[in-house]
TrEMBL record:
Ranges in coiled-coil conformation: 64-105
InterPro entries according to UniProt: CDK5RAP2
GO molecular function, one term: gamma-tubulin binding
Name of the protein in question: Uncharacterized protein
Source organism of this protein record: Timema douglasi
Keywords: Coiled coil
Superkingdom classification of source: Eukaryota
Cellular component GO terms held in the UniProt record: microtubule plus-end; mitotic spindle pole; pericentriolar material
GO biological process: centriole replication; chromosome segregation; establishment of mitotic spindle orientation; microtubule bundle formation; negative regulation of centriole replication; regulation of mitotic cell cycle spindle assembly checkpoint
Amino acid sequence: MFVLQTCSSRLWVTVPAGVPRTLNNSSPDLGIESDPGRFSSLEAPNNIGRIQLVTVTAGEAKDQSRLEQENMELKRRLLRTRRTLEETLVQLTVANQRKKQMERAICRQIHKTNHILKTTRSNLEAAASDEPHPSTDDQN
């Protein structure tokens, strides 16, 4: 069933095709059925429901406006949530880039330190092999 509100506070309601024709064509003010042959031959084969006007009560109008307000509030909350998520994504991306840069810098420093330590060890080993070791006999 489709429901649409117009400016005159009435709803358009589509009546399903399965509703008996007597209920579909009856006149509520006279209590008689309308002429079933009043439609053109183009409309007859279509089993589309007929449109009827239904008066909206004050309670239904309040419910409608309350639902519209709730819908607008939910849309605002969804928009805020999406913005927050987008900002969080940007912040996480920046943080991950900084983390990778820091990791690369640390790796470079470790390689430099490793190279310096290797050079120092080889220099110490070369210096130790060039110097004569004092023997234990010379000390006595």
